[in-house]
Write a structure and sequence with these properties.
The structure holds 2 protein chains of 2 kinds. Chain A is of the alpha/beta class. Chain A has helices at about 55-75, 80-95, 100-110, 115-135, 160-175, 190-200, 215-225, 235-245, 270-285, 300-315, 335-350, 385, 400-410, 425-435, 470; strands spanning about 20, 25, 30, 35-40, 45-55, 150-155, 180-185, 210, 230-235, 255, 265, 295-300, 355, 375, 395-400, 415-420, 440, 460. Chain A folds into 2 domains: about 10-260 and about 460-470, Aldehyde Dehydrogenase, Chain A, domain 1 (3-Layer(aba) Sandwich), CATH 3.40.605.10; about 265-450, Aldehyde Dehydrogenase, Chain A, domain 2. The chains are: A alpha/beta, B alpha/beta.
Amino acid sequence: MIFEYAPAPESRSVVTLRETYELFVDGAFTPAEGGEYLTTLNPADETKLAQVAVAGPADVDRAVAAARRAHETVWSRMPAAERGKYLFRIARIIQERSRELAVLESMDNGKPIKETRDVDLPLVAAHFFYYAGWADKLAHAGLGPDPRPLGVAAQVIPWNFPLLMLAWKIAPALATGNTVVLKPAETTPLTALAFAEICQEADLPPGVVNILTGAGETGRALVEHPGTDKVAFTGSTDVGRQIARSVAGTDKRLTLELGGKGANIVYDDAAIDQAVEGIVSGIFFNQGHVCCAGSRLLVQESIAEELMPLLKARISRLRLGDPLDKNTDIGAINSAAQLERIRELTDTGEAEGAERWSPACDLPQSGYWFAPTVLTGVSQAHRVAREEIFGPVLSVLTFRTPEEAVAKANNTPYGLSAGVWTEKGSRMLWTAERLRAGVIWSNTFNKLDPTSPFGGYKESGYGREGGRHGLEAYLG
Amino acid sequence: MPVPHTAFAPEATTNRALRAFLHGLPGVDEVGARARAQDLSTRSVKTTAKAQAIDLAISMVDLTTLEGADTPGKVRALCAKAAHPDPTDRTVPRVGAVCVYSDMVATAVDALRGTGVGVASVATAFPSGRAPMEAKLADTRRAVADGAGEIDMVIDRGAFLSGDYLKVFEEITAVKEACGTAHLKVILETGELVTYDNVRRASHLAIRAGGDFVKTSTGKVSPAATLPVTLVMLEAVRDHHAATGRHVGVKPAGGIRTTKDAIRNLVLVNEVAGPDWLTPDLFRIGASSLLNDLLMQRTRLSTGTYPSPDYYTLD
């Protein structure tokens, strides 16, 4: 019998889109001086959602000046408990508006509503609640008796978790008494602009949070602006390198959270059904648009034959389609450019000798879509084992011994995340101790929490976000 | 030369071989199993899918009365309900079976003659299973002789927990033999086995011993049928089918009271074992109060309004 779930779309009516969004500077929405706009699309059907102002150098000047003024006159002088109150208020408004924000995020990003509703938005609110609690307890953070804010933070965030990355950047910055100028990604600016409205609703003093929309040039102008004290960036390793160069020689502090090529190590004694779940969520969560994705599956050769059919059967049950349908597991790829990159790299994998498999899967006619894909027979020398694909593509490698697993897992320029699956505690600890990765998940994957520090080794960046460690990046 | 897989051969069944097989099964990560069940329980089943699911669920109900106070009158009333769950609406499917104690089988068979509803009997000193083997077999034979087409036996949980897997295995094979052509459902009483590792092992043991169904609970122990337990059992029958080609059914029983619970179970069946199992031949739900909730939701879906519970017969 075929049990077909009827369409269960989440209503769009909770979202009111404006035709045009301006820059959020000094507490008000103001046009960009250049008068230029970019269009943000719904990647699921390529319809236009809104046009958004493009900030130029003059706008960056204005925003940085407003942030400086707010820092010096209001935010750094305010009793810390008062700062905390603003953050608690913002967290509560986010919770109240979470359904609207989840729908808006799915529309602008293409990720399934199931994820924005159950993962992104709860984590966004949790992040603000968590750092709100820290605001008046900074003397107990282990960073000296009276740690001081840095000043103005320039923050540039990616498109894969638009509102969550905003929360990771803004919540600790504000809690520690800094003010911010934040640039959301070119393709996903809408939830950041909704957040600007929330700042107004919370009566946050003008200039404490400034949101500048735009593309790469706007980001460059912001991180190179001499008037900031701190740069925080999450995105690609290439851009991270450019930023590190431009910040070198200045007295700005820098944190970078860059790419990854996470290894997901499955030992022969793993709880196999849960390992399959972990492999699937490791690479197909958020269409694989996750810097800490478990994009390299390292499976012990002795169970590969048993595991692969289970994994493929599980992947065949993933439901790809309308991101707003509550039963969708895999949504749209965020942009045409990203889709092209995924296609190109996956084709390369095939050309280099990997075997390519995807389940039977109807892709929608319009929009940007890529079927979940598994590449088997991948070796360390293949590009798909070394380069970040940032899409729903899993590279499968095998290993024979724990030593080989660790050596292969670490044999990457990145070092952001790793997962280990074994029922044997001693092997878990032995492996985790030797992995060079900022986050190591034990019998789980892609679990995030505001109390837990997150960041990378090697070319995955430096500095930590989240937890007590996340405060350090914003205190001097 | 390939080494024969002796552990599968009944003549080679020893406690040592069973132990090696069961303890060699992959473990179940408790947190992961719960998370998967929770994730699947967020599936949104609405409109046409909900209508389909409700009728399917009704046809899978083993309408149950297992009380010390059961009387022929009570059993006859339950049978009438099973054959025509909603007397005012003949489009409602009949339930899968009526489930009673063995001494009530004759009454149920008589009441259900010609309706197509099966009669299932609990047996083997249900619910505790603490009785001499002769008594368990006599219980089974009596129910089969009186016309029960399905026997719901309980395993000896004490033997299982003490590691005497052979005793559990032999009891199941003996009861299976006593069943003749009747289908055998093996109740694991997962609330007493406690861990998911035990649930997986007991499922494979029951399947290997010849059970046609594995069933979660007697309904007399809490917790009864939880979603993660049903998930682990569905994985066991899925894996057994992949290895041998034989389909074994699953029956969660106890604690499934609402349409939402029932639909969550069907989603689990659909996405874990697969659509093959979406039939009363391979999936049953042991319940009593569930049926009226399914009927109310069915009416709600077709008319748009909730009827008063008074419109539904108590039994």
